[in-house]
Design brief:
Keywords: Signal. The chain has about 160 residues and is an alpha+beta fold. About 25% of the residues lie in helices and about 25% in strands. The chain has a 5-stranded mixed sheet with strand order 4-1-2-3-5. It is globular and about 45 Å long.
């Protein structure tokens, strides 16, 4: 059958075109995350609006529920609130949160946090442990180059909204 295809000039061109496309795609990076711009110039403020709790938190402990999981394993964390942007928590309060165990990736970036670092966290829930999405792009550490810009964007937006 392959000989029949290759004996026809039209089919040869098709096969060569497909092969060229395949080889060209092998050299391209693979993106697992939906966003091709992981560091937009300004913070997408619709992210903040959807969450009742927005804090800057110093993570003091992380416990992985599935340490052998290779992509965005569920985890729980304990931290200290450094700054309140939205919600009832106050600086110095201890915060507990856990990721949503049943959340699917759907080609989104996993949230990966390190003990001892300070992060911008957006959380759901009415009582602790609050719920932290397992996947998303905007859970930045305070040493991230865009952290201060994003913080200013959020503060300005919340001030305008009267929050």
């Amino acid at each position: 059958m392959l000989n029949n295809l290759l004996n026809r000039p039209k089919h040869i061109a098709t096969v060569l075109g497909l092969a060229a496309a395949l080889f060209a795609s092998l050299g391209q990076p693979v993106y697992a995350c939906k966003s091709f711009d992981p560091e937009p110039k300004h913070f997408p403020l619709e992210e903040v609006i959807n969450y009742p709790h927005v804090y800057v938190v110093k993570v003091t402990a992380i416990k992985s529920d599935q340490p052998d999981s290779w992509y965005g394993p569920p985890f729980s964390l304990t931290g200290q609130i450094v700054q309140t942007l939205k919600g009832p928590g106050k600086p110095g309060d201890t915060l507990q949160a856990e990721t949503k165990a049943d959340e699917e990736a759907h080609a989104r970036c996993p949230v990966i946090l390190d003990e001892g670092k300070t992060y911008l966290l957006m959380l759901e829930g009415t009582e602790m442990p609050y719920k932290l999405p397992r996947y998303g792009l905007y859970y930045l550490s305070s040493d991230h180059p865009r952290f201060k810009i994003y913080m200013a964007d959020i503060k300005r937006s919340l001030k305008k909204r009267g929050k």
